[in-house]
Specification:
Blueprint (H helix, E strand, L loop, with lengths): L1 H17 L1 H11 L10 H13 L24 H33 L4 H25 L17 H19 L3
Helix pairs in contact: 1-2, 3-4, 4-5, 5-6
C-alpha cells in the first residue's frame, strides 16, 4: 500500500512539474479574469467578442476583436468572431446547422444496410459533433481551453480535406440505406 502511495505522489509531482501549462489552463478556466494579461487573455478576449456581438452582430467582416486582440482568431476562437460579426442569431444558426448535421448523421446510421455502415456513420457524426460541441464550449468558457478547431469553419487545409473526405464517406453510407 505504501509503495502505491509513493508511486501516486511521484506521478503527481511529475505531472505538476512537467505540465504546468495544464494547471494554468484549469485555473484560467475557473476564473479567466484572474490573469487577464497572461493565460486568460485569449478566453477573455473571446468573451468580449461574444458580448459585443449583441443580438444581430456588428456586421460580416466588421469584427474588432480579431485584429490584435484574439490571438489566431481564424483557428480555435473562430466561433467568437462569428458571434461578434453575426450576433446571437448567427450563433444559433451555426449551432442549428451542427444540430441538423448530427440528427441526419444519426438517422443515416439507423437506416444503414449493415452494422459496418451504421458504425461508420455514427463515428463520423460523433467526430464532427463532439469537436463542434467542445470548440463552442471552450469559446464560451464552458470548458477548459483545448486547442480544438471548429469543423468546417476553422482555418486549415488538411483538416478541411479530411472532413470533406469523411462527408463523402457519410454520403455514400446515406446513399445505400434501406
Amino acid at each position: 500500500m505504501a509503495q502505491l502511495q509513493l508511486h501516486g505522489m511521484w506521478a503527481l509531482a511529475t505531472f505538476t512539474e512537467k505540465g504546468k501549462f495544464r494547471i494554468a489552463r484549469l485555473t484560467t478556466f475557473m476564473d479567466p479574469f484572474q490573469d487577464i494579461k497572461g493565460d486568460g487573455w485569449q478566453v477573455v478576449q473571446g468573451l468580449y467578442a461574444i458580448g459585443s456581438g449583441g443580438l444581430f452582430g456588428v456586421g460580416l467582416g466588421e469584427s474588432k476583436q480579431k485584429y490584435l486582440y484574439i490571438p489566431e482568431p481564424h483557428n480555435d476562437f473562430i466561433f467568437a468572431v462569428i458571434a461578434e460579426e453575426l450576433g446571437f442569431v448567427g450563433c444559433l444558426f451555426v449551432i442549428a446547422l451542427f444540430g441538423v448535421f448530427i440528427w441526419r448523421g444519426l438517422l443515416t446510421a439507423m437506416k444503414a444496410q449493415d452494422s459496418f455502415g451504421s458504425l461508420l456513420a455514427v463515428g463520423i457524426t460523433s467526430l464532427v459533433g463532439i469537436q463542434a460541441i467542445i470548440n463552442i464550449g471552450v469559446v464560451t468558457s464552458s470548458f477548459p481551453a483545448t486547442g480544438m478547431s471548429l469543423p468546417f469553419f476553422s482555418y486549415g487545409g488538411t483538416a478541411l480535406l479530411i472532413l470533406l473526405a469523411s462527408m463523402g464517406v457519410l454520403l455514400n453510407v446515406s446513399r445505400s440505406t434501406r
